[in-house]
Amino acid sequence: MPRFIERPLEQVGLGPGGRPLFLRWRGRSWRVTRTADVWKDVGCWWEEEGEKVFYRLEVDGGRLFEVYLDRRTGKWFLYRVYD
Amino acid sequence: MSTIEFAHLHFHSPFSFLDGAARLEEALPMAADKGLRALALTDHDNVSGAVLFQRLALEAGVKPIQGAEVTLEGGRHLTLLARGPEGYATLCCLLTRAHLGPLLTRAHLGSPRRRPVLTWADLEDVVGRGGGVAGGRTGCSGPGLIALSGCRRGEIPSLLLAGRMAEAHRAAARYLDLFGRDGFALEVQREFLPGGSRLEAGLVELTRKLGLRLVATNNVHYVCKEDFWVHDLLTCARTLTTVEDVHPERRLNAENYLKSPAAMTRLFADLPEAVRGAVEIAESCSPALVPGRRLHPAFPLPSGETSSAAFLRKMTLAGATRRYGRVSRRVRERLETELDVICRLGYEDYFLLVWDLCLYARRRGIRFAGRGSAADSAVAYCLGITNVDAVGRGLLFERFMSLERGEKPDIDIDFDARYRDEVAAYVTARYGGETGRAWGGAGGAAAGGPAAGGDAVWGGAGGAAAGGPAAGGGAAWAGTGGAAAVGPRVASVCTYNTFHARSAVRDLGKALGLPPADLDRLARHLPYAGGADIPSLLESLPELRDSGLPFWKFERLFAAAAKVAGFPRHLGTHLGGLVVCREPLTTVTPLQWAAKGVVVCQFDKEYVEDLGLIKLDLLSLRTLSAVNQAATELGDGFDYDAIPPADPATMAMIRRGETVGVFQLESPAQRALQARLGVTSYEDLVASVALIRPGPIRGNMVEPFLARRRGFEPVTYLHPALEPILKKTYGVVLFQEQVIEIAVAVAGFSPGEADRLRRVMTHHRRGPEMEDIGRLFVTRAVERGVDEETARRIFAGMEGYASYGFCEAHAAAFADTAYRTAYLARHHPAEFFAALFSQQPMGYYPPGTLCVEAARRGVRVLPPDVNLSGACYLVEKVEGAGGAGSLEGGEARARTKGVRVSLRQVKGMQRRALEAILGEREERGPFSSLWDFCRRCCPPVPRDVVEALILCGAFDSLDPNRRRLLWELPGALSTARGGPGLLEEGADPAGAGPPAEGGVRDFTAGEKMLHEYDILGFSPESHLLAYLRPRLERSGFLSSADLGRAPAGRRVRVAGLTVRPHRPPTRSGRTVVFLSLEDEKGLIDVTVFDRVYQRYGRLLFADPSPPLAVEGTVERRGRAVTVVARRIETLAAALDPP
Hints:
The structure holds 2 protein chains of 2 kinds.
Chain A lengths: L1 E7 L2 E4 L5 E6 L2 E14 L10 E8 L4 E7 L4 E8 L1
Chain B lengths: L23 H10 L4 E7 L5 H11 L2 E9 L5 E6 L2 H16 L19 H9 L3 H6 L7 E4 L6 H7 L3 H15 L4 E6 L6 H15 L2 E5 L10 H12 L21 H7 L4 H13 L23 H17 L4 H16 L3 H16 L4 E4 L6 H5 L29 E5 L3 H12 L1 H7 L21 H5 L8 H5 L11 E9 L2 H11 L4 H10 L8 H7 L1 H4 L9 H10 L3 E13 L10 E3 L5 E3 L3 H6 L3 E8 H13 L13 H8 L12 H10 L4 H10 L2 H5 L3 H8 L13 H4 L9 H12 L3 H13 L4 H16 L4 H14 L6 H20 L1 H10 L8 H10 L3 E3 L11 E4 L11 H6 L2 E4 L10 H14 L5 H8 L5 H9 L10 H15 L28 H12 L7 H11 L2 E2 L1 H4 L7 E12 L10 E7 L2 E7 L1 H11 L7 E10 L2 E11 H5 L3
Helix pairs in contact in B: 1-2, 3-4, 6-7, 6-8, 9-20, 12-13, 12-14, 16-17, 20-21, 20-24, 26-38, 27-37, 29-37, 33-34, 35-36, 37-38, 38-39, 42-44, 43-44
């Protein structure tokens, strides 16, 4: 079941092409084992929202995280977690 | 080594209609700048952009590849690319099938609302068998196509996204089987959408399993990433959603832009075979549109004739004898010259075709008039296509056709609007090939050709009486007429309805979720203008500036309107254009439905010519319908074609400016001109038609012409060579033909060069082309002995004329109709105005103004009557008909005639209800009461229409108390439906009669009048201003009749209903508004200069317009009287000041 989180990530380690290699959230680090999908979303452009780049990541232990980079602010967020 | 680094093979332009924001004029230069060497246009289910695309691409040095993204069953997409001309023809055939179905018979064409769908069976039929039986019917030949698996809506990608790999595999195998290994590839797009990785993995696996080619595309929908929002708004407009709504067709991100080859190569760095695949396909394609093709129709010659040229000559000379009696040497030489040009350019079949359809119209008694530059042709005159004697008037054939120019001749013909479609059906049936005959309908019966009736060249009334060309002769013609016909050869030309300010505000404002009421107000206030002009209009137009609308909320909307300005929004039907093709049209253009319910090609009038097709302009002119109706009403004693020339009473009427209702002479500017010009001849009318145009007004040519015409200013010429050319226009350059003649006479230009000068002047008024040709003119003139200063001045004079070029032949053709309608207005006003009313909407004025004008001419306008009114306005004999002033001749006779308002004029009257009323009356006699009417006609006549009939006085002859009838109506309707009546005690013996007269008090006269305005648009026997006249007189307002006696310079107050306020272009560029105020006695013309307009503009252009009170100064020029406004207010405010 996916859980909607929408909270800033504490730290993101990036690899080639700007893809996340590890994440830190609530004091715990997660190593990315596979990037399952990548997509971009312009959001509500009419409200001056910026583009977001989403990654669906498989992390240690087989859990799936969806994280995104808000390109306007440069901040990373944990969007959803699949338990 | 390939010179192509990458090619975009999936690209949508605005011709994807609300699904493409990549303006071709921007995209192609940018593509070239980015180093793109090939680009494929793949709009949805059409190739409308093909001509423009190929032209721009070649100019930019980009290889154009024609294609389309077709919609298959289930809404699946498939990208099809034409390898070259053969593939393009196949694509056109497939698209036609997608739009119209495979059989192309009238019964199988389906509905105009049908969405295009290409069935697999059609795809197999056309591509798989290279035509096949049904393919043969549509004229398809061979595939020549490359198919790409398409976007996410393609069959294979959608199966892969759904995780149905095995089905995707089978589907890919099926496409491979149909198109072959060279003709099918899988399309991979890195659009950064959810599921993209899985989709790509599936595509890569399929390519490996099936040995397919992989092709990288970007499904381009806009040029730059920054333009995504424009495309998103268009998508919202297309899906009828707002930006706040979620819709599967809205794109998630801004990745579908025209990425550079370098960016695409980088993007697919780990999949280089996909980039290579795109390059290989691009290299295997070539431009599909063949320049210089001639697909002009072949005229089916009658038996015994062997050459179109010889037959055209024979018919022309026979026609010349008919026109001139004895054909002079001058005429014969002119005809031979023209025939030589026509035949050397290869247009003899085209002339014969036009002659044939005119012959058909004449035999059918369908009134028509050739117009435009075709009237410069003596051949057209002799063939009966035009009515202007080009030789007699000394008109220049070179303005119409020339060997040097070699352009297609453009023949425009106006037909009686009621029968224009019949003529078009005849063309379709006769020249449309096998399919055309099936489509032609009624005209199909006439497809045998015009050899039937008495006069083979002219047809004439005898032919009409004999039933036209259907009466025989078919055998002689059918043999050569399209025996090899396969597929339709005739279709209407389409138009591209484009975004302009108003439509952009409505569509995109809605998509942005802006308040509908604000959008409606804004759109109603906007004039016809481009989307980019809105911000400047908001500043310059007071009706917008002072509207109180919250413009700050609309900034994004205005930016969007500018972005989409000129984008095609949907296909429409050209008013008159038909293309007639030598080959099946479906090899040149796809055919589809237009909303009007006719089959159109996917190209507009400009592009069809680029494709090598020739266009016929068969236009509808309601004036000719009105003329015909009036002539029919007048009966055998009247012959429209035999109206005497320069009738003194008609000319006197025109000189008084009393030309409301007269073709081309009725606008305020024309009426004012006539009152000053002092028309005495047909030539004056020709000049009049040409003078009141934006150009002459802007070029300040009207005043010099008037002064010279009236003898107030000497007629001079800059050079003696100009005198014979400009004599008839008093030394003023008025016509396009004169520019050509001057260039020939003064500078020794060849006629073709001279026409190029005219065209440069008309189309490129400023800039290097104009300067170049000016230098050439002066140089050549000096070489011929003209001094340089004079040559420069002559050229400057023509340059000043440039923006208002008007064709003399066209003016002459219009002046002919103008004079004849003026004659009708003068001598037969009842019949003429009845016809004008019946043909509404037409002309310059609304019915209310025509009603006042008819009354002024002594014609009584009678209210509608359920027992007397027809579908059209009818002429009735009346006693003591009204009218003001002293009337003479026809107008005095008109006093014994009235015009009965038609039932069709009643608001809400539908065809079914109208036919029920008229049918019932004809079958069982007049109605005896409202109850009788309801019993016999309700249903189908709905209650609101019966109410409208009561309130506008249509039952007055049965019971003048309209309020009582309204009270009775529920009971009458209930009884009619078999239910109990509400007022049964008064019922007649049949149980359905009216109640006894009660004490219901009727509406007041004022209330009745307002009801009539609401329901009819005017009050037949009253007028708002007549009703208010006592109060107006007390307040010092003058009527239109009083104003005629007011001296110049007097300060006056006038009032009336606002008629046609407009802002024509002016020489100074400042705004001047012209409008008329209609009162019970006529029209008051008002001029509003910029300063006053800036103050009161919101009143002038309010919607709906209120009656206005204007205070101003009387200005007199000749007999023309105008009020120059100083203060404007609503009439209500003027009479009841706060």
